[in-house]
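User: Hi! I'm a student and our assignment asks us to look at how structure tokens line up with a sequence. Could you show me two examples?

Assistant: Happy to help. In each example below, the sequence comes first and the structure tokens follow. Example one:
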Amino acid sequence: MSQSGVLKRSTILIHGSVGIPLAVIGYPLVVYLPPFYAQEVGLNMALMALVLVIARFSDVITDPLIGTLSDRWQTRIGRRKPWLLMGMPIMLLGTVMIFMPPDGVGIGHLLLWTVLMYLGWTMVTLPYGAWGAELSPAYHQRSRVTAAREGFILLGLFMAALAPAIVQSLGKRYEAGDTEGAVMQAAIWLLGSDGQLSTGYGPILAGMAWMLLILLPLTVILVVCCVKEAPPKSVQRTEWKKGFRVLKNNGPFKRMMLILLIVVTGESFRNALSVFFMQHVIQIQAHIGLMYLVYFGVGILGIPFWLIAGKRIGKHKAFCVAVAVSSASIIGMFFLQPGQLGIFAAMFALKGFCFAAFQFLPLSMLADIVDLDTARSKEHRTGLFFAMSGMAHKLAMAIGLGLSLGLLALVGFDAQATVHSESQLMALRVLYILGPVILYMTAFMIAWKYPLTAERQERIHQWVMRRNVRLQLEPQQP
């Protein structure tokens, strides 16, 4: 990194690469896991929703703890790197047990291994996010870091969306009697069950598990070996009670936490119902994998647009534009009829274009908030801030997932049934459309008056730099 805080492109890209496996696990958790355990494993949908919410609430303890420890635990290889190396095997074990469960598992299996997987995820993602925020102190350089990371996440989502299409294609070949060849035999062994390969959601999740087993160790080792951590910047260490009081008095931070809670709840709510909506309302089950390829492919193309928009009109206003456009595209889906694939694909692609802004703009804004805390507390606590944001993100995902599946069960929707009444389909349609839109527009109203602009952040950063220089020179004075 130069004196001005400008980062090498290679540093940004290598650091961002960890986003690929994080996306590979995050996407199926909200898209394919609910229909798999409801339709193929046979778990009660309302009970499953409760278990997934309980598992997420374990982060209320682990997120602040790991965030604070990663700020203060200094080792020979740094503060952030050890957590990635420790969390990786825990995350892998939990994922494999969830995505490739043995026959006859019950609700206890899902709870145990989901809690363990989330623990490993926390140990990887929180220090990793804080590490990225510390790579550069410059306002727009942070946008480059977060945009690169979220770009890799979108690439991982694209890969994760491509996997179902490939797996289902192999499943169709198997059902047609084509069982010969090395590729097919490998697919049956890696993705199948009892020597069989189906076209259901089980082989898709198995494919995701194998992708994670390869990509997570590869990228974590690469970033640990090739990217340097920024040196600790704390000049004073505060007690944790005083630290949380500072967080409580940080207006932009409270506003950002509220925005994250609301908009991520909306995203999780919609994602949990997307497969059901496409399968039963629009009736395009054979094209679901293709729809997600379009969604994430367009999302990748949208990254430069939202990065430029953030520079020109401000990150918070660019985020508001993305929220408004997303809401309009979802409202349009309410009027679609079964079989209208082309129109649905266009609206789904427009939502995917905005998804890129949902991914990286709030995280870039959060990195700016750290400077305000540093100015007030005289301590650089990036890990704690990202722990709190991570906890809000996970809590919102749990609320959105549990609320959507719980409401779907409440209206009597049976995931294992092939035929549903008009009232059940209308209930699904209303939940899928109005639920997220109401939440998105609430986030819009809160984010529009977000106070921490580029100009204000730059003034805060320069003040902190001058203070740090002054404090470093004071011991040298007689």
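Example two works the same way, sequence first and then tokens:
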Amino acid sequence: MFELKLSPLTASLSLAAVAVAWGAIPLFVRNDVSSVGLVGVRVTFGAVALIIAAAAFGKLRFPAMHRARLVVAGVLLTAHWAAFFQSIKLTSVAVALSVMYIGPIAAAILSGPILGESVPRRLWIALGVAASGTVVVVQPWALGDEGASSVQGIALAGLAAVLLAALMIVGKPAARDLRGLTMSMAELTVAAVILAPATVAALSDHPDQLVNFLILGAVFTGLAGFVYWEVFRTIPVAAVSTLMYIEPASAVIWAMIFLNESPAVMTWLGIGLVIAGGAMAAATPVDEPATHLNVAL
């Protein structure tokens, strides 16, 4: 059977690519579709894409191992995305991302006592560099009255951060034992069942958004979710947390390309710090062995 060796470096580069793609998600959120509806179509199309893939590889099953953990992960994922999408609608993308990315820091800190992971000092430095770069990128202090954040938007971004940290901690053991395809398919299926009514409403009320729904779900959720959880098996939570700081930095680039926004010099400095932090994380040796990504997944 063909086997693709997934080293920590390859895993890190793959996760960086996912983070760059996820930086474009706010472009799909600023519309008239409700936040819950957006999450519904996202998880539904993502689940369908992975179910098709799992069926093709003969892996279409909801595993008995970690079943309760998978259900909890699906619930946390649903709540996290709903809170985050609504925070983007109520406040600026910069502030929403700035607050939400407290979550990976919390997950990195908790991975030691809860998961027993050994976090090298270099990873903590990388995490600090990336987090500092994110603050410089979003520059919430520079927002004027036009971009003033609502208390509700900030609160929802904070809730999204808490839920993201919980999802990373809860999901790591399941991803390690079940592989990325099974993990992502299971959690997305749970979320799709929960949000079925909202999905039907979004598809009925906004048929003109079908292409965007498909991209958001099948590509940015199904495919990217599989890569995310497969990578999560290979590198520590702290490394994942650091690399994911590429997402808010890439969001600035996407906005420049598609929204005609011109980043300031400080913004580019922040992006440089985020990239530097991600590079440090990718180059940091880890104790966990490389995984092998089979064609059968």
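Here is something you could point out in your write-up. Residues 141 and 253 are 20 Å apart (CA to CA).
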